[in-house]
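Weekly structure sync, notes
Attendees: PL (lead), two postdocs, one rotation student
Agenda item 3: pending single-chain targets
PL asked that the sequence for the first pending target be pasted directly into the notes so everyone works from the same version. It is reproduced below exactly as submitted, 116 residues in total.
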Amino acid sequence: MAAWYRSGGKALIDTIRADNTAIRNAADNKDSTGLRHACDQLLADARAANNYAPIPDNQAQPHWANSLPLIIKGAFDCAGSFLPGYNDLLSTGVEEMNDGVTELNLVVTRINAPLG
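Predicted structure, written out during the meeting:
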C-alpha cells in the first residue's frame, strides 16, 4: 500500500481533494464559470484516478472503488447542470460528489493508519 501511495496514489488523492475544494470555493463565491471549470477538472481527474492501479489493501480498495464512480457521476452531473434545462442536476451532482468524498476520506484514514 505504501508503494501505491508513493508512486502516484497520493498525487491522485491530493488532486481530487483540491478539485473538490475548488468546487466548494466557486460555489461559495457564486462563481458559475469557476464552478463549471472545477466540475470539468474533477471529472477528468477522477477518471484518471479510476484508470490507476487498485490499492493493494483489502480494506482501502473497496472504499477507493466506491468513491471514484460516485465522484465521476457527481462531477458529470455538476458539469451537465450548466446545459440548458438541466439546472436541477447540480444538487444531485453535489450529493453524489459528497458521497464519493466520504468514501475517499475512508481511504485516506486507512492509508494514514499504517503510514502515520
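Discussion points:
- The radius of gyration is 14 Å.
- The chain has a mean pLDDT of 94.
Action: rotation student to compare against the earlier draft before next sync.
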